[in-house]
Specification:
about 230 residues, disordered N terminus, mainly alpha
Length: about 230
């Protein structure tokens, strides 16, 4: 009888521990579910920003023709400079990911849930790698060549007045001809680098769209599986 009582106590304790871990696992999933919704909202804002940038940079071809005809006709470059000066990167909401990693939470999740979360995080790491290498190098090239082309007294006030990107309300206005040099090879180089920057911006946009697609897929998956609101 004593053995039976001890055994039953062990089973009850095991069952209780199992229920506690199952509840903790669902709490992790619920927290990650909310993180995903936060991610998709911020991705939408980033896509809107990139869409404005891409739309503005597509005018570089008309601007190139204008500038090559007259090296003093640089007004059209103002908007191009504004939209190639800075970038808004996406930062993952990682509060739940940190908890899962630091508290050993992944062991509480079933394999399908854990694998889907890890796959999402890996997709984000791929996006970060593109940002830190290809995209950043492309933006640096545009900035560095512009610093060789531009007259400091013309560009500096423009940089101060448009330091914050204001979407479609931001206009590039110079207080005189932009170029410090009449080196047409250097002018051509800047526009070539700007074209590459546009391509990498499109690449970044496609990468973030893929991340959003994964996030939305996970939202649907967890919502259906755990009956979240």
């Amino acid at each position: 009888m004593l053995f039976l009582a001890v055994f039953c106590g062990f089973l009850a304790e095991y069952q209780l521990e199992h229920m506690i871990e199952k509840d903790r696992a669902k709490q992790y999933i619920s927290s990650f579910y909310e993180d995903l919704k936060s991610d998709t909202a911020r991705i939408d804002q980033l896509l809107a920003y990139d869409d404005k940038k891409i739309d503005a940079l597509n005018d570089m071809y008309n601007c190139y023709d204008t500038v090559l005809k007259d090296l003093k006709a640089t007004a059209c470059m103002g908007t191009l400079i504004i939209h190639s000066r800075s970038n808004r990167g996406f930062v993952l909401t990682d509060r739940t990911l940190k908890q899962l990693a630091n508290a050993g939470g992944y062991r509480l999740l079933n394999k399908g849930d854990a694998d889907s979360i890890i796959a999402y995080e890996n997709s984000y790491k791929g996006y970060l790698d593109f940002q830190a290498t290809v995209f950043q190098q492309s933006q640096d090239n545009v900035r560095n060549t512009l610093s060789q082309l531009a007259d400091f007294r013309v560009l500096a006030p423009h940089q101060l007045t448009t330091a914050t990107f204001l979407g479609d309300t931001a206009r590039g206005v110079f207080n005189g001809p932009l170029f410090f040099t009449e080196d047409r090879v250097l002018v051509n180089k800047w526009f070539n680098e700007l074209a590459m920057y546009l391509r990498t911006t499109n690449g970044q946009r496609n990468s973030i769209i893929q991340l959003k697609t994964k996030a939305n897929s996970l939202i649907r998956y967890f919502k259906n599986k755990y009956h979240f609101d």
